[in-house]
Design a protein that fits this description.
It contains no helices and eight strands. The two termini are 19 Å apart. With 103 residues, the protein is mainly beta. The protein has strands at 2-3, 11-14, 19-27, 34-39, 44-52, 63-71, 77-85, 88-102.
Length: 103
C-alpha cells in the first residue's frame, strides 16, 4: 500500500499484522526542505528511506522521498512527517500524518 500527500489525515484501521506500507511525498531538496520523521510510534518501524531524483535536470525540479514502514503489532498511534529544513525546527512548511486504529 502506498500513501501520498492526498492521504494525509487518514485513519488506517489495522485488521491484520504485519502491515507494510510506503509514504511517497514530493520535496524540493535543492532548497534544503526535506521530509523528516516527526512522530514514529514504537510499533511502527522504518524499513527504508529513499530519494527518487527528478527526471528533469532543470534547477529546482521536484524529487520524491519514499519512506517504507512495517507495523508489527495492532496498536493505535500516529505517524507524522514534516517537510522542513532539518537544522531549523521552526521552519516547517508542510506536514503529513497517518493515524492508526485497531478494530
Amino acid at each position: 500500500m502506498e500513501y501520498t500527500e492526498k492521504d494525509s489525515g487518514k485513519t488506517i484501521v489495522l485488521e491484520t499484522v504485519p502491515f507494510e506500507f510506503a509514504v511517497k511525498l514530493d520535496e524540493n531538496s535543492t532548497t534544503g526542505y526535506l521530509w523528516e520523521i516527526a512522530a514514529l510510534p514504537d510499533h511502527i518501524k522504518l524499513v527504508k528511506k529513499d530519494l527518487v531524483l527528478p527526471k528533469s535536470r532543470m534547477a529546482g525540479a521536484t524529487n520524491s522521498r519514499i519512506f517504507e514502514f512495517s507495523v508489527k503489532e495492532k496498536v493505535a498511534g500516529r505517524l507524522g512527517l514534516n517537510n522542513c529544513r532539518p537544522w531549523d525546527n521552526n521552519d516547517i512548511v508542510d506536514s503529513f500524518v497517518l493515524d492508526f486504529a485497531i478494530n
